[in-house]
Amino acid sequence: MFDVEISAFILALCLVWTNGSILPEGNNPNHNTNTRIIGGQVVENRTHFAFQVSLRLDGHPSCGASILDTRNLLTAAHCVTNTRGNVLRASRLRAFIGDLNIDRLSAATITRWIRHIFVHENYNIDTLQSDIAVLRVDPMTLGRNINYIPLAVNVPPPNAICTVSGWGLMGYGGIPSNALRFVNVPIISHAQCVSTYGNTLLTGMICAGYYGRDACMGDSGGPLICSGSQVGVVSWGVGCGLENFPGVYASVPHYKSWILEQQARAIASSIRDHSYLYLIVLFVYIKALTYKH
Ligand SMILES: *[C@@H]1O[C@H](CO)[C@@H](O)[C@H](O)[C@H]1NC(C)=O
Questions:
Q1: Are the CB atoms for 34 and 216 separated by under 8 Å?
Q2: How many whole angstroms from 145 Cα to the centroid of ligand 1?
Q3: How many CB atoms neighbour CB 110 within 10 A?
Q4: Peptidase S1 domain: from which residue to which, for each copy (predicted)?
Q5: Hey, which bits of 80-199 come out as E strands?
Q6: Residue 290: is its pLDDT beyond 80?
Q7: Is-contact 283 258, C-beta < 8 A?
Q8: CA-based, 20 to 30 A from 144: which of 1, 12, 51, 56?
């Protein structure tokens, strides 16, 4: 499929896994919004990937995400928008967190409906500019196997080895994985990545991966981790693991202040939610007093 679009204005391969008929909503036909781990291996110990989240759209595994804090997840905007770039109804999305296998859920798994979706205001479905979103959920208890990942301050230098993980395809046109997989990928310099993708590589995008090692369909929205902090969000590519076509990620350092703002909004709204509750209690109390007479 990658050859079809190479000369087109977009070379994108977004990384949403689409389950057969449910070709989402979510995906410009010019962007292949599917991505799964290529050339990687199965994660044996959940503690090492405690931040990994599986998103389900209408009940089907669709994307990855990562944990920012007890109430917020980070994912790609194209995971939570339709073909016109409009934000999906939050109630169609649910997060599964805590297990390594998405087909065999144990008591360790917690699920959270998505309560609110914050898509970056500069997100563009055609160019995949600012392909980043924060999802608010009801509070989670963090611990060894369900934990947040710190946000990176800088993008590491070229050739630094990072890790991308997900339940995506194990080969382009291959099958998805029920087990969480990861692969180590080098950061590719901006200059080298521009030489591949030209002006489709925009500010706020970073590249990682090499021949035979990449994210692929279904890994979208998942984290790129370097030295224990998140540097990227799986966004797009051309094919998966192709020589000279590295994976493209939304840069976490570039969007860090935006991400922090969304987290702060969640905290503010939680305070608002509670004041609303106090008002109800007060109202009921006043009613009770009134009815005494
Ligand atoms: C998983 O990794 C953690 C942290 O490295 C370690 O403490 C724990 O023993 C490991 N669990 C298993 C089952 O190997």
A1: yes
A2: 10
A3: 16
A4: 37-264
A5: 93-97, 110-113, 116-119, 133-136, 161-166, 181-188
A6: no
A7: no
A8: 56
Structure tokens at 223: 């984290």
Q: Whose CA is nearest to atom 12 of ligand 1?
A: 45
Atom 14 of ligand 1 has which residue's CA nearest to it? Answer: 45
Residue from 71, 65, 35, 34 nearest 51 by CA: 65
Ligand 1 close to Cβ of residue 47 (< 6 A)? yes
Domain 2-14+24-272 has CATH 1.10.10.10: no
SS3 state of residue 208: strand
pLDDT (tens digit per residue) in 137-193: 999 999 999 999 999 999 999 999 999 999 987 777 777 788 999 999 999 999 999
The pLDDT of residue 279 is: 66
Domain ranges of the chain: 2-14+24-272
Residues annotated catalytic, as ranges: 78, 131, 220
The 10s digit of each residue's pLDDT in 192-214 is: 999 999 999 999 999 999 877 78
Q: Could you tell me if the CB of 45 is within 6 A of ligand 1?
A: yes
